[in-house]
Amino acid sequence: MRILISGASIAGPVLAYWLAHYGFRPTVVERSPTPRKTGGHAVDLFRPAMDIVERMGVLSRIEAKKTGTERLTLLREGRHRRIEVDLRRLMYAVSDRHVEIMRDDLSEIFLDATRDTVEYVFDDSITALAEDADGVDVTFARGVPRRFDLVIGADGLHSNVRRLVFGDERRFTHWLGAYLAVMTLPNYLGLKDQLMLFGDVGRMAGVYSGQQMDDARAVFMFRTPRELGVHHRDVARQKEVVRAAFAGLGREIPRLLAELERTPAFYFDSITQLRMDTWSRGRVTLVGDAGYSPGPAVGGSTSLAVVGAYVLAGELAAAGGDPVRGFQAYEHELGDYVRRSRIFALNAARSLVPRGRFQLWALAQAARMINHVPPGMIRALARRNSKGVRLHDSIVLEDYEQRARTAATTTPRASTLDRSFT
Ligand SMILES: Cc1cc2nc3c(=O)[nH]c(=O)nc-3n(C[C@H](O)[C@H](O)[C@H](O)COP(=O)(O)OP(=O)(O)OC[C@H]3O[C@@H](n4cnc5c(N)ncnc54)[C@H](O)[C@@H]3O)c2cc1C
User: Fold this and answer.
1) Does domain 2-66+101-172+273-355+374-414 have CATH number 3.50.50.60?
2) For ligand 1, what atom is nearest to the CA of residue 301?
């Protein structure tokens, strides 16, 4: 059974890995001419995603590439005292198993793990999908048209497949009141294991590097009273908006703003949440940010993308490749995680960029508390936290291989593992 996946970042290669594992024949088409290696940002893998990458046999490679960020230094505008936070204590409270890694490193590891079993087509994109009872005819911007049994969009928050099948993204996106920019810059502060945050009301900037990195990343998050009409390709205007939002701030901010002129890689977007009641239609479904991004940098969406890919492949295999049963089971299995991630992201977006003086003060108090309260107590408080701090660790993964083995012993011919979907 031939399955086309659009997007070769995180969800795409993880899905392709598991589909190939169950005997399907995945092809991944990626718009970028090569795997991305410049820019990018740090992402998080929490316990369920860590369990999945362990099952994929890539855990040691991922751990070897972790950023190793262990300290956070919070500096508030107009205040001299800096607040130092041991991030390991914070992470201990949030998750039993966690790694922070640069997205492009993670993507490269997934691509390497699938090179021999998956067909990759770079520098191309789907332009049209025509579905009939038996399959989908796919037209590409560059390659010749091809036919597939199923098509899956793993092409991110601004998904092309979603647009082709479900229509304009504005029907599903909800702005969370803030904007996000990331740029690459020289590691002129000599950061190794440290994230420096510069906070003020309505704006927060951070700089970090990683133990594997030669350069650094600066992140800018800021609130605006209403949505800005900045075109996604108008980089000059986007930089202007960032400069205006952080104008007048001291410490490292003037230098960071000056780096905007020289950066080799710049990203800008609104912090937007995707809300779709269903993300499957006919022979097409969506995975990762394309289907259910809770919002970039606020909802742990990389873990959600990895788990989503694992569940989709598992449910499709369990349904014998039937998209009606497989996609329905996928949405049912993942629905609760998606809904809770949205709520988590809404809360995180509110507190990460303080709305007022009191919120900035509360953020500083919370940061101080992490250093002074024993780790066991922080974890106990996290467990009682109604805003779902331990959201990811509460997810219980279905063991699809075990399910297939059980099915094989009771009804041998129904085994998903024994079947080759060719
Ligand atoms: C600035 C920023 C900071 C973030 N910080 C965090 C964090 O701290 N922790 C965390 O867990 N997550 C974070 N995220 C979110 C995280 O990056 C995503 O959740 C994760 O990458 C989702 O993976 P994905 O594969 O679904 O989508 P993406 O990583 O967005 O990948 C989509 C892929 O599809 C490709 N594509 C796009 N259009 C087409 C097309 N027409 N045809 C073919 N291919 C196409 C793209 O080139 C890309 O390779 C952050 C995101 C951003 C933007």
Assistant:
1) yes
2) 19
